[in-house]
Amino acid sequence: MKFQNIAIIGAGNLGFSIAQGLISSGAVGIDRLILTENNPKRVEALKANGFNVISDNKIAVSQSDLVMLVVKPWQIDDVLNDIKPAVCSKMPVIVSCVTGIMSGHIYDQLGCNPPLFRVMPNTGVAIKESMSCISAHNNTPDQKELINTLFTQLGQVLFISEEHMPAATALAGCGIAFALRFIRAAIQAGVEIGFSAEDAKILAAQITKGAAELILQNNSHPEAEIDKVTTPKGITITGLNEMEHSGFSSSIIKGLLASYNKIERKA
């Protein structure tokens, strides 16, 4: 069993990334996917790529058994008020990818209690490489398994308690940007030591990918993998120590904490 029709309310960057991932993974055919969008330029671009795009959220909900809310936090109350008659009538499974909006708030706005999953993916979802953290509410085991199967096709999945969603937002949601900033810095350094920008990009991206796969496939600690490439008086340990003297690890930790604390202040 799988979801027959999926609606994505909000086809911005993340919503579009999810749509791409769903189609490329085979989770749903493009003819079974409904996107809602009001921006005329985005509507035109989405339709040019073969997507079924409408502006009426209520129609999208009424035609779907899974509804994904992928809008900005300041938009969510208007969206929930708009779709609540259709949701309470049909009771589809709801997936909320809205940062900082608790399940209790969603239920209060809807006035009914459909199965709800708060999901924090990242833009890696477009290429089936997301890290999706999920909290489950008012669901059956079968519904949880369907959501797990769906998002596993789009990358890694971790079910967590709702209280950990702010931390997941900072580490998984914001973290992909921090990793990309490391790649950008490595590209800049690569150019300075003699590579073309294109070659430096390939090198920086692949070493980052390889490092991640070592951790995931070996289930090892980063330091264990670092030890394999550092030798006494070697060039690797010299570079690592220089980075640490400049606050490399500290800046990453501070950045993540800054993002997390901003989410907590908004909660």
Main attributes?
8 strands, 267 residues, 11 helices, single chain, ProC C-terminal domain-like fold, 8-stranded mixed beta sheet, alpha/beta
* Mass-distribution shape: elongated
Give the helix tally. Answer: 11
Q: Please give the share of residues in helix.
A: 55-70%
CA-based gyration radius: 21 Å
List the domain count as a whole number.
2
- N-to-C SSE series? EHEHEHEHEHEEHEHHHHH
In CATH terms, what is the fold-level topology of the largest domain? Answer: Rossmann fold
Give the CATH superfamily of the largest domain.
NAD(P)-binding Rossmann-like Domain
Secondary structure: number of strands? 8
CATH class of the largest domain: Alpha Beta
Query: Termini distance?
Result: 36 Å
What CATH architecture of the largest domain do you see? 3-Layer(aba) Sandwich
Provide the residue-averaged pLDDT.
Answer: 94
Structural class: alpha/beta
Q: Sheet bearing the most strands, described?
A: 8 strands, mixed
Q: Strand order across the biggest sheet? A: 3-2-1-4-5-6-7-8
Low-confidence stretches: none
Beta-strand content estimate: 5-15%
